[in-house]
Amino acid sequence: MFLDLTLEFAKSLDQNDPLKSFRQDFLFPTFHEKEVRYFTGNSLGLQPKNARKYILEELDDWEKFGVEGHFMSRRPWYSYHENLTDMMAKIVGAKPLEVVVTHSLTTNLHLLLVSFFEPKGKRTKILCEAKAFPSDQYALSSQIDFHGLNAENLVEIGPREGEHTIREEDIIDKINQLGDELALVMIGGVNYYTGQLFDMEAICAAGHAVGAKVGFDLAHAAGNVSLSLHDWGVDFAAWCGYKYLNSSPGGVSGFFVHERHANNNALPRFAGWWGHNKENRFEMKPGFQPISGAEGWQLSNAPILGMAAQLASIEVFERAGMDRISEKRTLLTSYLECVILNVSEKSKALCSFEIITPKDPKRRGSQLSILLHGKGKEVYDALTNRGVIADWREPNVIRVAPAPLYNSFEDCYWFGQHLEAAIQ
Question: Measured between alpha carbons, how far is 251 from 36 in angstroms, rounded to an integer?
Answer without folding.
Answer: 23
